[in-house]
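for the writeup, i need someone to sanity check this before i put it in the appendix. the sequnce is what the collaborator sent (i think, or maybe the updated version? ugh). structure was predicted straight from it, no edits. if anything looks off just tell me and ill rerun, i have time this weekend
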Amino acid sequence: MTFNLLAIAQSGRLEHEAILLAASLRRSDPGFAGSLFIAEPQPGPKWRDDPRMSDRSRKALTALDAQILPFESRAFGSDYPHGNKIEALAALPDAPFLFLDTDTLITGPVSDIRFDFARPSASMRRENTWPKVELYGPTLHDTWAALYSRFGLDFAASWDTSHPEDYWQRYLYFNAGWFFHESPRAFGNRFLAWARDIRDAPPEALVCQELYPWLDQITLPLVIHSFGGGRPGPDLGALDGSATCHYRTLPLLYARESDRAVEVLEGLADDLRPVLRQWGAFKRMVIQGEGVTARTLFDRDNLPRREQVIRNTLKREGLWVR
């Protein structure tokens, strides 16, 4: 089945990451038959500065056969740019789609993945980031139960009962770095309505919880569950596997990702050098070779369990740059 890819770009780091994403798609999946849409927020009252990309980046993306997709920010904007991935869905043609965070590298053919677009899912490459349970506050179970109740969802049907009550992996929780569905219109409308509802009138159980920057990841499992989706099965193993790499930052890519991811990145270096040399992370990690130094600091077969430990090591060695 043909489907579209969607990523978000705006002025600064994201426009550079979008170029890298588009170039890696063309290199690693030359037979991809769908359209690559790079959604771009437009200036308006929700943005303090003009969020649009530079002409240089627009030209580079167009040369990589990406379509620039402008959209309006009506609910979020500068205060919560993560909301771009929610609002951009309304601008996408209403056909099956896969959303990818811009800091993703295509390392293999995404067109070979056996998606069931009627059963949405999302990335399980996440940590226990939300909710933070207070000593005398609602339990983790009660916090999630309040959200499922708010939207009339079957809470118990979402559990992974191989984990005990109040253990975070029992409950549906995703990294919003990728997700998919058959209809960006239906999915996006519900995602936006429920995210705004949680933001504007959170259930009482959430009164002590930080909603930013987690709002998209709080809302996403509820939306996926409501459309009959859930945790990804083995057919989707190439996502966060052989076909995609959600690297987060270039220092983290060198520190912990596969040899294949580094090979794809460095294989694009010569072609992308003219347009990405202004991106400090690319210049230092790839062009000047500091990524190789970062890679020698870690054993990929025995990485620290928490990303923060890797970040702290890179910072200590002066190798942290975005």
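The beta strands are 4-8, 36-41, 66-71, 97-100, 104-106, 121-123, 175-181, 244-246. The mean pLDDT is 97.
thx in advance!!
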